[in-house]
Amino acid sequence: MASKGKKVAIGCFGVMVLMCAGVPTLLWSLGGGSPNVAVDYEAKLNERAAAVPEADRAWPIYRDLVIALAARSSDELAELSDPAWRTAEPSEFKERIESLSDELAQIRLAASKPGLGFVTSEKQPEAFWEAAGQEPPLDRDDASAPPVLLDMFFLPHLGQFRSFAKLLEADASLAARQGDGARYVSDIDAILSIADQSEEHRTLINQLVAIAIRVMAFDRISETLISHPDLLDEALLARVQARLSGLHGGGDYRLDMSGEQCFFYDFLQRIYTDDGNGNGRFTANGLAMLSDLDGYGASSGGSGSGDPSPGARIMNGAVRLYASDRRTVTAAYENVLDGASRWSDEPLWDRGASDEAAMETIDAASRSFPPDPGMMMVSLIVPAYSRAFTTAENLNQQRDATAASLGVARYRAKYGEWPGSLDELVPEFLDAVPVDRFSGEPLRYRVLAHGPVLYSVGMDRDDDGGRSAERAMNWVPSDLVESRVAEDPAAFDGDWVFLGKEAQPGADGDAAD
Predict the structure, then answer these.
(1) DSSP string, 187-245
(2) 341-342-347-350 Cα dihedral, nearest 10 degrees
(3) What is the distance between the alpha carbons of residues 92 and 441, in angstroms, rounded to a whole number?
(4) Is residue 38 within 8 Å of residue 124, measured between CB atoms?
(5) Residues 345-362: pLDDT tens digits?
(6) What is the pLDDT of residue 373?
(7) How far apart are CA 206 and CA 256, in angstroms?
(8) Are 249 and 9 in contact (CB under 8 A)?
(9) Which candidate in 171, 360, 394, 477 could, as Cys together with 353 as Cys, close a disulfide (CB 3.0–4.6 Å)?
(10) What's the angle, vertex CA 12, arms to CA 9 and CA 18, rounded to 5?
């Protein structure tokens, strides 16, 4: 019996040894394979910038301006965009703007260039990075391989562009006070051109910055039409209106998701193998990169090349037992993108809540135990599309309303009185009365004792007679309107007013000297 028991013990020990040796061997076998980094997505994102001829590039002018303006204190420049400061210190405001006349001329010159020509991989002088208050990007370890897009795609100019636009907006404010309509229009045109240059790269952040800059121009136009109604003659009004009507090719502004797709597909090719037919398996390199992705960096993953450690390969073998393959992850990402695009195609007044079922499924897979690493990547990289698409739709609404406001001003310049209705502007000053994208009906227009008011019914969907609410432009699905208004009536119970926010000239801080 003792001999038999000994044999059983030896047998069990042998099985344990085989398991201890066999399982790691199996996982080692499962965990093999390397990514194939075949596409340089940074080059794809840079295609438009790289195609701009050197002589037509605005970037060298902007870069030198950043360095030149670094000598000015940030507080000094920030005050220029503060309406309260302009009113409190009008003479100092005027002196400060005039002291920047050379820089403003350079901004206008750069804005007039056909293209920006900012290629992200090109080296910038250290003085630029110091002036921009940023650390220069690290040198790449392996210049022979396409760079990791999340590591290499630096956009230092976007913050600077907003500052340049604010300087132009401040100068436009002074030009209005001084009765210089030509300079005012030149400033507005330059602001809109900076917005165009901002989205040379088709990333979401580029486009959102461009939208913010355009809104800055629209706000300044609307305020000036009330505060300085006689600043622009009919010809200058028509020039600005034509500029607005020509934006985005004359149609609605649409977000371009090609840049976001570059980020996704670049990361995908670095964490999966490639079987040549659109599929592949998760790799140990992917584990290394995902460990950094949550902090928005991919440096530890490098270019996806290099042999992982034995432990990492064995761990990846275990991960592959539950990780989605490359085709499944790609389909999940494209399903989210297609759903967001279909949702954004619906008119805002008919649009319901965004279909987030696909994204919820991805999030659930990324949070489960064990988490699906491919779905985790999608969850971390996919931005909040619904909010971005609504922001773009609001831009279209404000552009249409500002163009209509200019039509109202042109009517007054020609006939000496405000039009009684927007219908009177068609077809001489408008092709058609703009639609209120919150209701599907024409925009509202009234002539009050102090002047005209042009507005949308806004988020609450009811006509409050042009009574402004601070956050009336914040769209929500119709079934959430009642609760949102009840939550904060002061912010949401009112209209989105485009023309006539200020009842008297000078209320925006532009009182005549």
Answers:
(1) HHHHHHHHHHHHTSS--HHHHHHHHHHHHHHHHHHHHHHHHSTTSS-HHHHHHHHHHHH
(2) -130
(3) 46
(4) no
(5) 999 999 988 877 777 888
(6) 87
(7) 10
(8) no
(9) 477
(10) 140
Q: pTM of whole model > 0.70? A: yes
Name the least confident of 2-6, 126-130, 168-172: 2-6
Closest Cα partner for 107 from 172, 194, 176, 173?
A: 194
Helix (H) or strand (E) holding 9: helix 2-30
| φ/ψ of residue 352, rounded to 5 | -95, -170
Lowest model confidence (mean pLDDT) among 302-306, 369-373, 437-441, 452-456: 302-306
**Amino acid, single-letter form, for residue 247:** L
pLDDT at 381 over 70: yes
Q: Token pair of 208, please?
A: 């959102």
Q: Does the pLDDT of residue 163 top 80, yes or no?
A: yes
Q: Residues 198-234: pLDDT tens digits?
A: 999 999 999 999 999 999 999 999 999 999 999 999 9
Smallest CA-to-CA distance from 26 within 317, 262, 265, 230 is with 317
3-state secondary structure 404-423: HHHHHHHHHHHHCCCCCCHH
In angstroms, the CA 70 to CA 84 distance is 24
β-strands 496-499, 444-448 pairing: unpaired
pLDDT at 462 (0 to 100): 95
What number of CA atoms fall less than 13 Å from residue 272's CA on the CB side?
Answer: 26
> What gap in Å lies between CA 462 and CA 494, rounded to an integer?
8
Q: What tokens does 480 get?
A: 């959430």
Element (H, E) at 152: helix 149-152
Q: Which residue has the tokens 């230092």?
A: 156
The residue behind tokens 């009919």 is 234
Which pLDDT score is estimated for 326? 94
Distance CA(100)–CA(94), nearest Å, equals 10
- Of 510, 512, 511, 506, nearest in space to 169 by CA: 510
pLDDT at 30: 53
Phi and psi angles of residue 89, each rounded to the nearest 5 degrees, phi first: -130, 65
Report helix, strand or coil for 17: helix
Between β-strands 451-456 and 496-499, what pairing exists: parallel, antiparallel or unpaired?
antiparallel
Query: Mind giving me the DSSP string for 166-181?
Result: HHHHHHHHHHHHTT-H
CA quadruple 274, 275, 280, 283: dihedral positive or negative?
negative
Tell me how far apart the alpha carbons of residues 422 and 442 are, in angstroms, rounded to a whole number.
9
Tokens standing for residue 344: 């954004």
- The predicted structure's pLDDT at residue 23: 54
Burial, 251: exposed, middle or buried (Cβ in 10 Å; 0-12, 13-18, 19+)? Answer: exposed
Spatial CB neighbours of 203, under 8 Å, sequence gap ≥ 6? 45, 153, 155, 259, 260, 263
